[in-house]
Amino acid sequence: MKGTPTPPDPLGSLRTAAGSGVPEAMFKLAVGLVTQQRFEEAFDLHRQAAEAGHVGAQIELARMLMHGIAGDPDPRLAVHWLERAETAGQPIAGYYLAMMQLGTVAMPRDGLINHRVLAAVQADFPPAIRAAAIHFGRKQSDADQTVCLQLLSRGSNLGDVVAAQLLAERLQRGEGCQPQPQAAAQLRAQLAAVGHKPLPSISVPIPPLVLPLRESGRVEPGVLALEEVLQPAPMQVMSRRPHVMRIDKLLSADECRLLVAHAQPNLRRSQTVDPETGQPVALEIRTSSDASVDPITEDLALRMVQLRMARSARVELSHAEHLTVLRYEPGEEYRPHRDYRPPSSIERDRPEAGNRARTICVYLNDVEAGGETDFPLAGVRIAPVAGRAVVFDNLFNDGRPDPESLHAGLPIAHGEKWLATLWLRERRYRHY
């Protein structure tokens, strides 16, 4: 009996070329190995090509180091390789440095962020274009609104699906332009043809500027000033025990749509932590669907939204768990629960970060009926309004769990509810 023939190696030709030691050949083989999830071999090839000066390999090696692929995360070494690639003239490396700067763990958060993002925009890097568009979309001036539309159109033309989704919503509603329903319909039809569902109806007035951004107190239209995201929005105290606060118009319509667009393709049945075992399981207490932002797929726009949320909750982004976006359909709810985690759960997920000290939730759309966030022991019930945030403490100042932080997401009577939740730990949780 003859044995089963060995299938040909699909990377055979790349292996042969890489054997010559040419950096470009090693880089191409490493990229192919990543698609086969052979990460350790890919990491070693990227390292060899990076040391030989290949800027693409330097960026990919840095990304593997950022996320701990084929080893422990090493953000400081990632910065080293990104800075080498940036010095060699690669603006995409600067884009990833800007992403890392937002967390202030591996490098300081300074004005270089603006320069780096602008360089990536000028290099036609779609994620940078989308982030810049959303930034300008938060500004009041007609000139900035026009820049937002121009950038979304540019990103859409470069194949950025999310930019196309945001552009379609603005054209339909006449945000920053006269309403263009026919153009919006054409764009939506193109998106539907490749499997992208329409976004829910989301409308938020342009959020107010919280504080002056420059010494002059004014930023000229058309100027990229991403430090705006650092300004914490004013809170309204709803209860002092438990400590519950509300922030209206925290996120813009574009930011809400961004989170929904990112989550829509990845929704799955929500799970919660079993109080007995500490394991995540599907329970009837929580009947929503959700999608978490994977750090590997996180981009600058998503990271800036999370930074805005964390700063407005008066906590640094590095303390945040990964953002979760939830969808509740009619009849779905999250019954009374508390967000602090049992010790068994903490032990399996960065115990050095401690427990969930504070939670910030942002409603991403208006709900026709139902869906309020209820704090029964405080007698507080907050209605879901697009862009509105709810901030509350899960622990006392001494770190003990506060049982009065009990809260619930009430059932949806009509429509659907989209919600973004960021759980904030006592100490640093993220690697960068």
Task: Using the CA coordinates, give the radius of gyration.
Answer: 23 Å
**What is the fold-level CATH name, i.e. the topology of the largest domain?**
Jelly Rolls
Main beta sheet strand tally, sense and closure: 8 strands, antiparallel
Widest sheet, order of strands: 1-2-13-9-16-7-6-3
CATH superfamily of the largest domain: q2cbj1_9rhob like domain
Task: Count up the helices.
Answer: 14
> How many domains comprise the coordinates?
3
CATH class of the largest domain: Mainly Beta
The N- to C-terminal Cα distance equals: 56 Å
User: Which overall shape is indicated by the principal axes computed on the Cα atoms?
Assistant: globular
Strand percentage, roughly? 15-25%
The helix content, as a percent range, equals: 25-40%
Tally the beta strands.
Answer: 16
Note the run of SSEs as H and E.
HHHHHHHHHHHEEHEEEEHEEHEEEEEEEE
Q: Runs with pLDDT <50, length 5+?
A: none
Can I get a quick summary?
The protein is of the alpha+beta class. It is built from 14 helices and 16 strands.
Question: What key attributes describe this structure?
Answer:
single chain; 432 residues; alpha+beta; Serine Threonine Protein Phosphatase 5, Tetratricopeptide repeat; Jelly Rolls; 3 domains; 4-stranded antiparallel sheet; 14 helices; globular
Description:
- Its cofactor is L-ascorbate.
- Keywords: Dioxygenase, Endoplasmic reticulum, Glycoprotein, Iron, Metal-binding, Oxidoreductase, Vitamin C.
- This is 2OG-Fe(II) oxygenase.
- Residues 319-426 form the Fe2OG dioxygenase domain.
- It is a single chain.
- This protein has 432 residues and is of the alpha+beta class.
- It is 38% helix and 15% strand.
- The protein has 14 helices and 16 strands.
- Strand 4 (272-273) and strand 5 form a beta hairpin.
- The termini are far apart.
- The model has no long low-confidence stretch (mean pLDDT 93).
